[in-house]
Amino acid sequence: MSEIAIAGGRRAKYRPVTEDSPLARYALIATAVLFLALFLLAPLAIVFFEAFSKGLDAFLSVFHDPDALAAIRLTLLVAALAVPANLVFGLAASWSIAKFSFPGKSVLITLIDLPFSVSPVVAGLVYVLVFGGQGLFGAWLAEHGVRIIFAVPGIVLATIFVTFPFVARELIPLMQEQGKVEEEAALTLGASGFRTFLTVTLPNIKWGLLYGVLLCNARAMGEFGAVSVVSGHIRGLTNTIPLQVEILYNEYNNVAAFALAVLLAGLALVTLGLKTFLEWRHADELSGRARRH
Amino acid sequence: MTSPVLVGKNARRFTAPGVIPGFGLTFGYTLIYLGLIVLFPLATLIWWASGLGLSGLCAIAAEPRVAAALRTTFFISFAAAIVDLFFGLIVAWALTRYDFAGRRLLDAFVDLPFALPTAVAGISLAALYSPNGWFGAPLADYDIKIAFTRWGILVALIFIGLPFVVRTVQPIISELEVELEEASATLGAGRAQTVLHVMLPPLAPALLTGFALAFARSIGEYGSVIFIAGNIAYVSEIAPLLIVVKLEQYDVAGATGIATIMLAISFAALLLINLVQAWSRRRFGHV
Amino acid sequence: MRDVSLDIQPGELVALLGPSGSGKTTLLRVIAGLNSPDRGRVLFDGENATNLPVQDRHVGMVFQNYALFKHMTVADNVGYGLRVRSRRTRPSRPAIKARVAELLQFVQLDGLGDRFPAQLSGGQRQRVALARALAIEPRVLLLDEPFGALDARVRKDLRRWLRDIHKQTGLTTVFVTHDQDEAMELADRVVVLNEGRIEQIGTPEELYDRPASPFVISFVGEAVALPVTIADGHVKFGGHELHIDTHGLRSGPARVFFRPADIAVAAEGDGDLEGRVESLRRTPAGVRATIAIDGYDQTLEIDSPLEHSASLGGRVPLSLAKARIFPADERDAYVDAGDGI
Q1: B–C CB contacts, 8 A cutoff, strictly below
Q2: Count of beta carbons in the 10 Å neighbourhood of residue C288
Q3: Burial class (CB within 10 angstroms; exposed 0-12, middle 13-18, buried 19+) of B127
Q4: C185-237, pLDDT tens digit by residue?
Q5: Among residues of chain A, what percentage have pLDDT more than 90?
Q6: What's the rounded Cα separation, in Å, for the pair B13 and B59?
Q7: For residue range C43-76, what is the model confidence (pLDDT) as tens digits?
Q8: pLDDT value of residue B28
Q9: Chain C positions in Cβ-Cβ contact with residue B195 (cut-off 8 Å)
Q10: How near does any CA of chain A get to the CA of C281, in Å?
């Protein structure tokens, strides 16, 4: 048994029980900052450092090289094909999964995520097994003079494979959270299905859609392993920027390799910046699901 | 005037009836696209692998060079995931629980390995750790070689795997209930005891998930590793690289065999994640 | 929190009662040592505990959502406070085990020691939380909204149970609640808080019979507030004079508070007030009349025996058995928010 008394008096002060000691706090912050600086920031910094190590002219001269320009054009072309393809797929998949109920839905969602669990090299390999010289359709394709492997179509296909889930996995949980009440309301008010999608669904998912497209595009432009397997590394024809970076690096042309890498690192920074902005500004309009990749 | 009429229909339907249109179109397109782009090519791999048979797969795995590459990949991926587990927890803790200058910026940069193309990461890590690089040169003074050794692979895989751990653990740390810490304190526990007994155990499922994700990703990683690894057969050659090598030698069967084994390891890791999450949901109510 | 001074006697069961944001939980946390007061002291048995860390205060705290450790079994939860003691004072393993078993039996949870909190019902979790708090042999027991998270039926059972626990342990117990029924039913004394200030400290009887402020009378039970004016020692409402002592209040606007039960239909020519009968309804004992008082914007329901045969639409005299008067300017807002039938 105890008596408790509370009375006026001098100001009291002590550390709240939920706070770590200053020593532990500084030690942990220092460890985290140091680790991130060494393992994340240094690799980013050295890209720019190496690219400009021989001055601005050396850096710019890369962009007069026809092979480099061809690589940039090819990368843009591949992204321009792969991103819209996965965008349309993402919309179709999320519409059918979020607005309807049917058996086997969770299996379908797992299958859509599957490409993330497949090594990029294996992703390239499976297309070689289908379309390559010894592949399933190899003989037939050769007979009809169609080239997929070691040509642009193979690169596009491999890129679509590795970026396959990006848009869908952002939209599915988002549209599931939003339910279908608004769409039903619009439809009962007489709007057509397509109009309902444009005027009701799309405004609700636009930031999530942009988020997915952003990540999809970054990966599409930067993909290396899968593309490397199916490309055949033909200069000026089937080299994307990452492949061109590899070739230049292996030729000990460091400045040129890092100059092209600066393009990709810049893309990564822009992507990170926009992504952070979206998460900060439109957090409630993105899906709450943990983001990775 | 029309009056509502309910029409009985005995036909069993795949999806519950409703007013929203477009199920047939979007569902059909989803299945066809998924089938053509993902399932059919992967099925082709399985078909090729089944052509090899279990004995064929074992024979490929037993080739000394393949066995060495698989070992290298497996063990270094494991080690890298352990390092990520440890430092990822510290990074996630510091970024979530403390406020300091530059915290938001660093938090954004955690995703860099997701956003930076692997080839770029590869050449910049190689440049950093090569004997005349920023880190390589001082280390060379102590006769420590990172680039073009197995240590290089480890460094690259640590880079690749870090965000998986941080991003999996971060939300759980921020959801830790303050009352738990307070309850622990009122019961007489010191701060260290509270952290050890009350705050870290609930993070275990997320840590294990992050670890498995980092590990699964490392198994298949190619671009960031090959520049720094040196790629010496039997020593610092990783399994994905060996697939490329086999393909260049037109040994499609060998490449398929390695790919199948790698897929099996990745899927085992992901299965482990699902089991851990199901177990912890059952036992603790939520993950 | 402002100017809070509170003395709790050994073995007392005290309720901190107030609306949300009134500072009742803050006060409880100050006693526990989880919040540090901006200024002021906390004394346990006359000894200054203000700077005593939470760990050394030996308070048994039951949190609103119980704060059970989800990854530990029920037994590990209960034994936690014993296991974390320094080696010098820590009981042996078998001793801890025995103590845990004893506590689980005390809270009627024997046999559930191996379960995890997720496998228990809300009422069972609450009892685990209590057993865990009792395990450290606390000097005082503090409970934050102990029944807040439970459904109405379980609440009633647990109230009686908490009363029993208090009787059996004899612990000085402080609990926070926003439910005045709960406070009045359980506590020896109730501390009514509002906006970080103590409005009144007293037994339930004192709070009902002698509320110290408009807030208390409105918050503890129902009350009707009439705007009145005081002139020359007389209390006026509309054209009527209320026969109420002004308690020395100065002339000017004021408010009269009374409980619905304290107003009744009076004999002809005898009332303080007059109202118009809006509707009549038979009840077993008499009639229930809905009456509109002139100059007051809400109607009152008044039960009266059958002999007062008021007629619908007719006017009836009303008398006040008991009422309290407070100046009008002070904390008008609470009065408006709290009154009504």
Answers
A1: 74
A2: 15
A3: buried
A4: 889 999 999 988 889 999 999 988 888 888 898 888 888 888 888 887 788 88
A5: 79
A6: 49
A7: 888 888 888 888 888 999 999 989 999 999 999 9
A8: 96
A9: none
A10: 45
Closest Cα in chain C, distance from residue A22 (Å): 17
Is pLDDT above 90 for B140?
yes
From C36, C71, C15, select the one nearest B206 (Cα to Cα). C71
Find the range with the poorest average confidence among A162-166, B184-188, B257-261, C260-264: C260-264
Spatial distance between the Cα atoms of B238 and B154, rounded to a whole number of angstroms: 11
Average per-residue pLDDT for chain C: 84
**Assigned CATH for B53-283:** 1.10.3720.10
Instruction: Tell me if chain A has a CB within 8 Å of the CB of B22.
Output: yes
Which residues of chain C does A17 touch, with a Cβ-Cβ cutoff of 8 Å? 33-34, 53-55
pLDDT band at C338 (very low <50, low <70, confident <90, very high): very low
As a three-state string, the secondary structure of A120-174 is HHHHHHHHHHHHCCCCCCHHHHHHCCCCCCCCHHHHHHHHHHHCCHHHHHHHHHH
Cβ-based contacts of A224 with chain B (< 8 Å): 117-119, 122, 222-223
Best residue of A75, A121, A253 to probe chain B, by most B CBs closer than 10 Å:
A121
Q: Which residues, at least 6 apart from A154, have a Cβ–Cβ distance to it below 8 Å?
A: A127, A131, A148, A230, A231
Task: Determine the residue among B13, B20, B179, B218 to mutate to test chain A binding: the one whose Cβ has the most chain A Cβ atoms within 10 Å.
Answer: B20
Q: Which two tokens stand for residue B135?
A: 């880190």
Gyration radius (Cα) of chain A, Å: 26
One-letter amino acid at C333 equals: A
Contact C139 A2 (CB under 8 A): yes
Instruction: Give the residue from C41, C137, C188, C198 with the most A CB atoms within 10 Å of its CB, the best one to mutate.
Output: C41
Asked if the Cβ–Cβ distance from A2 to C45 is below 8 Å, we say yes
User: Using H for helix, E for strand and C for coil, what is the string for A182-206?
Assistant: HHHHHHHCCCCHHHHHHHHHHHHHH
- Show residues of chain C in contact with B201, CB under 8 Å: 69, 71-72
Three-state SS at C60: strand
ipTM: 0.90
Provide mean pLDDT across the span B258-279: 89
Sketch out chain C's domains with CATH numbers: 13-214 (3.40.50.300), 226-327 (2.40.50.140)
The ranges assigned to domains in chain B are 1-50, 53-283
Contact B83, A10 (CB under 8 A): no
Angle between helices B150-175 and B118-129 (to 10 degrees): 120
Type of residue found at A1: M
Q: What is the mean pLDDT of residues A267-287?
A: 89
